[in-house]
Here is the input.
Amino acid sequence: MNDQFEDNLPRGVALSWGLVKQPRRGPKREMNLKQIVDAAITIADKDGLAAVSMNKVAASLGFTPMSLYRYIPSKDDLLLLMQDAVCDIPIPPIKQGTTWRENLRTYVQACIGVFYKHPWFGDIPVSSVPLTPNNLQIVDWALRGMNELPLNDHEKMSVALLLSSYARSSGMIQRDLNQAIQSGKKQSAISGQDYSAALKQLVTPERFPDLYNVVISGAYTEENNEENNVGDDFEFGLERILDGIEYYIEKKRNR
Here is the structure.
């Protein structure tokens, strides 16, 4: 490992940057880091994060667990490398004439897509700022979308955190709903329409004074879509966040 970074970076982060020398001696059919991480991702995509273990990953590659530990010292390091690997997504070039809103909207939608494609991604706790290369590439993408805005570096990072937090929460909710559908749950049960009649009896104006009218109107269970001027809830939320950022920018310009 490069001595310059040895005392400064966690082992898994150093591995992600290629700063750790890989074993030169070992089984005849030598492994490599990418094979191990890809195998772990395949297991997680199929059976969830709980199914990933050093033993199971090693077995899927035809090696012993001890062989794996020569490449990746711990399961935590493996999870970090898995997380970074699935963040290696295509980043489109910014086209001339696109607005900052369009650029940031594309960024958020792509981040949500990671949760949809890899449902386990959100099960890995956030333990620090992004430190691995593909994760940092995503941060760079978000910042690039703000190049023309009159924001300082701290403001840009706060906007990036706000948008990535929304992408994370939205991605995890959409992931959960998708898994519910795949498990056989009806859309009408997910939206609550199957229980609408019961809710209209149980949600009384005395106990739920503000929720009552929403339930009675059908908005709570998406019954009355003719009057719905919101459209997709997640897109609506994103647009309101972008509105807030735009308002903040205009206030700065007018100072």
Notes: The CA atoms of residues 169 and 198 lie 29 Å apart. The chain has two domains: 3-86, 100-185+224-253. The mean pLDDT is 92. DSSP finds 13 helices and no strands in the chain.
